[in-house]
Amino acid sequence: MDQLLSWGLSVVREAQTPASPALTVVMKGISVVGTEYCYLALLPLIYWCVDKRRGLRLGVLVFLSAAINLRLKLAFAQPRPYDLDPSVGMGKESTFGLPSGHAQTTTVLWGSAAPLFRVPWGLVIAIALPLAVGLSRIYLGVHFPTDVLAGWTIGAAIVVLDRLVGDGLERLLAGLHDTIALALVTAVALGMNLLSMKDTSLSGAFFGLAGAAIYARKSAPFSVSGSLRRRALRYLFGIATVAIVYALPKLLLAGLEAGGPPILRFLRYALLGAWVSAGAPWLFLKMGLADPEPSPPHSENAKEGSVISK
Asked: What is the model's pLDDT at position 256?
């Protein structure tokens, strides 16, 4: 392992050979694509304005992938390049390095979002963005190349698994009663907490997003259709409310969260997830920024709708 890390450190040093202030700014900008803030802006855009079913499914996959990534980081407990050589560190992170969360999550997100784009652009984006983000992490000295390769591999495996069983699982969930579906969401959230009690934000966001979506199909059955102007207004208004829901509780609970029980962080992110999937859509309908979704066909299951409905 020491030899592998030594080799990885030499690759990081080589990647930094052409370093300049301008290139570093570009690399840090690319790296942002793999952060929480990017997902916070992008996932609501897809869910509210492009494809409701795909947007919710992407959110679930991203949260599950991130929880798996965090568990693996704790299991491997591998240092980052700047831990071995502080001179290569152009950034700092609070977790271990293996596997790269940026590489893994961008692979999951853009690989799963590829069907939203016309051929071949979906495939190009699904490859190019994770590749660029992974290389930026090596350049910045926050990951060894093996961290990034592992992230890409795990992310690709999740995308393939979703392609193989995701549609079937979605149809299965469509037939569940709301109470059973919510119990299943709760069980998955608890499982995510068991993977790591260090950070309950992922399980909270998953619980809020998926749990509220179960009931939003009846209380806020909005349609993503509409003119480009209307969708833009919907998104701009919605993302402004998301920023408030994200920032205000964070400011109010800052002192309590630091040394307080993990449930506080769980609840804060659950509120955020629930607002994206149900709260904001309810407002869209009330304000005329979205039309009600057309009633589905006759069968009982169709009346019930899907847990992840388009």
From this structure: 65
Tokens 């009846």 map to which residue? Answer: 218
Burial grade of 141 (CB within 10 A; 0-12, 13-18, 19 or more):
buried
Q: Is 297 left (phi over 0), alpha (psi -120 to 50) or beta?
A: beta
Contacts of residue 223, defined as CB under 8 A and 6 or more positions apart, other chains included, come to 290, 291, 292, 293, 294
- How many Å from the N-terminal Cα to the C-terminal Cα in the chain? 47
Quote the CA–CA distance of 184 and 170 in Å, as a whole number: 13
What's this model's pTM, rounded to 2 decimal places? 0.86
Distance separating alpha carbons of residues 281 and 212, to the nearest angstrom:
11
pLDDT in tens, 157-177: 999 999 999 888 888 887 888
At residue 305 the predicted structure's pLDDT band, cuts being 50, 70 and 90, is very low
